[in-house]
Write a structure and sequence with these properties.
With about 325 residues, this protein is mainly α. About 65% of the residues lie in helices and about 0% in strands. It is built from 15 helices and no strands.
Length: about 325
């Protein structure tokens, strides 16, 4: 046996440094035999010596020469020590290592709780504010999405997605906000946040629209979500907001049809003008643009009631959004 190694195969220098680390500054405390480094890190954690525990457990967790179970246990000790020190990012990385590499870990339930607390810390603590998309608060999204991915049926999973959606709203990242809220409603339809998520998904889609002069897809997607919200929750806590937003979206959609009708009129394409005016009147008759479209059709000598029975005079079946490529997720 080499004179520089212990019987357990640990470098003797590690144990020497360990004893020095434990006893430094502790003249009133007798030397303590903490044993092997992993056991020592556990005891240091229990003693509240978090920095020492992290310094010893961290290298074990990163060493590819260690047994996988020892690495996972060391990662948990280091994660707990870093969590207690307020080193949230370091703690999160240790916890994520366990989730990715040690599904057998007995610490899963506590890790789930820790992830939720870390996500809240990234969102709410002042030290994580003020640097835009690349700030540390954005780490909260990563943490909470990790929680939701690994603990889909947990009580915190739907809360995590709501917080992610709220974060993106605050950052005015409305596409990401809509996707988060839609995931919340679709994956957790019985969640207490279901109604709120469905309305906010529609509201976020509405925010993406640049107006009736542009692509109407976002308005149509907003309309679909808001109509679904009112159908499922007609007297819900968000019903007044959903109805207000739906009225605005429908008016904008009617206006978009009239704008295209005016385009055709300016180029002498009467059939195109009539088709788009008919769309506006048939789909949105209670809006101001829809009513004006009806008046223009009557001025052309058209029977408005006849429009309802002749599909050749409108294109209402084509008024639906295109594929939402951004929102598509691989299975």
């Amino acid at each position: 046996m080499s004179a520089t190694r212990t019987t357990a195969g640990r470098p003797l220098s590690v144990l020497v440094l360990l004893l020095v680390a434990v006893c430094a500054g502790c003249s009133s405390t007798p030397d303590i035999d903490l044993g092997e480094p992993l056991d020592a890190s556990r005891r240091l954690l229990e003693m509240g010596r978090y920095e020492d525990a992290s310094d010893i457990a961290g290298p074990i967790a990163r060493s590819t020469d260690e047994d996988p179970r020892d690495r996972a246990e060391a990662a948990f000790v280091a994660g707990e020590a870093d969590f207690e020190r307020g080193e949230h990012l370091a703690a999160f990385r240790h916890y994520r290592y366990i989730l990715e590499n040690a599904p057998w870990s007995p610490h899963a339930a506590l890790i789930r709780e820790r992830l939720f607390e870390i996500g809240l810390a990234f969102f709410n603590e002042e030290r994580y504010r003020g640097w835009g998309w690349f700030d540390s608060r954005a780490r909260g999204v990563e943490v909470l999405e990790t929680l939701q991915a690994y603990f889909k049926r947990s009580d915190e999973a739907d809360d995590a997605l709501r917080l992610v959606g709220d974060y993106f709203v605050e950052e005015e990242e409305f596409e990401e906000a809509a996707l988060a809220y839609e995931r919340l409603f679709e994956e957790y339809p019985d969640s207490e946040w279901g109604e709120l998520a469905l309305w906010r998904a529609g509201w976020s889609r509405m925010q993406l629209s640049r107006g009736p002069e542009y692509d109407r897809d976002d308005l149509l997607r907003a309309k679909g979500r808001l109509e679904e919200s009112l159908r499922l929750f007609p007297k819900g806590v968000s019903s007044a907001e959903a109805r207000r937003d739906l009225d605005h979206v429908r008016s904008q959609l009617a206006r978009s049809e009239v704008i295209v009708a005016d385009f055709y009129r300016g180029r002498g394409v009467a059939a195109g003008e009539r088709l788009r005016l008919a769309n506006a009147w048939l789909l949105y008759p209670d809006t101001e643009p829809g009513q004006l479209a009806g008046q223009r059709l009557e001025a052309m000598g058209l029977d408005l009631q006849a429009l309802r029975n002749d599909p050749m005079l409108s294109s209402v079946d084509a008024v639906r959004p295109g594929r939402d490529l951004w929102g598509e997720r691989p299975e």
